[in-house]
């Protein structure tokens, strides 16, 4: 549908733009704080570039919203949701790994947004986001490698020749002898371990600086859940004589000073949970061994329940901003 000569934004486009705006305001708060504590002279410029990219995205998104006469989301504010004067909560190594993890997640999100975009300005925006982030992610990886901090996934042996699956036991995994893990299973187990281990460190720091007792307790439970998931993924990798990634618990200081607003920390936590459910779903689809699929189903159910509790906390405190939604025709008909 067009208004004059301007094509209206589709539900997919406006939702992608809205979510991007919220995410960029949130990540700007974290980057601003990190800029105030980072001491490593090699990390500082790349962190500053990350902040500038997020701010540039917000400018473009604001222009699109204004052109559409669409209300600009409230999101998060640098003067409300972060205390840049707070003492150090995370190490420089954590910050660099955060840039790596967040860039990977954002790149996946932008790729999805691009495939759903039709209107020229929206498509161009997400295409530019991908272009910028691809270059940025390469720079982050290079810096991690140069500092000896990059954690590579396990290596697999090179086969002598091609082969085909001959036994139905290839799919089994509950009883008896289990076949070795295939590449996609190793990749997802390793990546899920990494993400959860990083989540443990993130929530550990969050729980220390939360102002509300309810929020602090919620974050501690999230940390414990992530730790349990790490133990499971690690045990499966170890059982297959494969290495497990490192943890980041030592990258968190003992600071308890207010650093991020409870609203921002709850947003990040619930967002990470939603992403985890998606990653587990993908992992399940890429894991033919049935025991792995069962694990992912069980873990997804556990964190889905945890996510609902988090959403209720946010709603109770007025922190959950309503996303774009369809008209309630039944309600409109009553007026």
Task: Describe the protein in words.
This protein has helices at residues 11-37, 43-68, 92-116, 120-146, 183-209, 213-239, 262-285, 290-316, 329-333; strands spanning 2-3, 6-7. With 335 residues, it is mainly α. It has two domains: 2-146, Up-down Bundle (Ferritin); 181-316, Ferritin, core subunit, four-helix bundle (Ferritin, Up-down Bundle), CATH 1.20.1260. β1 and β2 form a beta hairpin. α2 runs antiparallel to α4, α5 runs antiparallel to α7 (262-285) and α6 (213-239) runs antiparallel to α8 (290-316). It is globular. It comes from Neobacillus rhizophilus.
Topology summary:
Elements: E1 2-3, E2 6-7, H1 11-37, H2 43-68, H3 92-116, H4 120-146, H5 183-209, H6 213-239, H7 262-285, H8 290-316, H9 329-333
Antiparallel strand pairs: 1-2
Organism: Neobacillus rhizophilus
InterPro entries: DUF3231 (IPR021617), Ferritin-like (IPR012347)
Protein name: DUF3231 family protein
Total count of strands:
2
Shape: globular
In CATH terms, the superfamily of the largest domain is Ferritin, core subunit, four-helix bundle
Question: Pairing-aware structural class of the strands and helices?
Answer: mainly alpha
CATH architecture field of the largest domain: Up-down Bundle
Q: How much of the polypeptide forms β-strand, as a percent range?
A: under 5%
Q: Estimate the mean pLDDT confidence.
A: 92
Order of helices and strands: EEHHHHHHHHH
User: Uncertain regions: pLDDT < 50 for 5+ in a row?
Assistant: 1-5
Spatially, the strands of the biggest sheet line up as: 1-2
Task: Kindly give the count of domains.
Answer: 2
Regarding quaternary structure, what we see is single chain
Q: What is the count of helical runs?
A: 9
Helix content: 55-70%
Q: What is the straight-line distance between the termini?
A: 26 Å
Q: Which class of the largest domain in CATH terms?
A: Mainly Alpha
Q: Main beta sheet: strand number and arrangement?
A: 2 strands, antiparallel
Protein name: DUF3231 family protein
Keywords: Membrane, Transmembrane, Transmembrane helix
Pfam families: DUF3231
Organism: Neobacillus rhizophilus
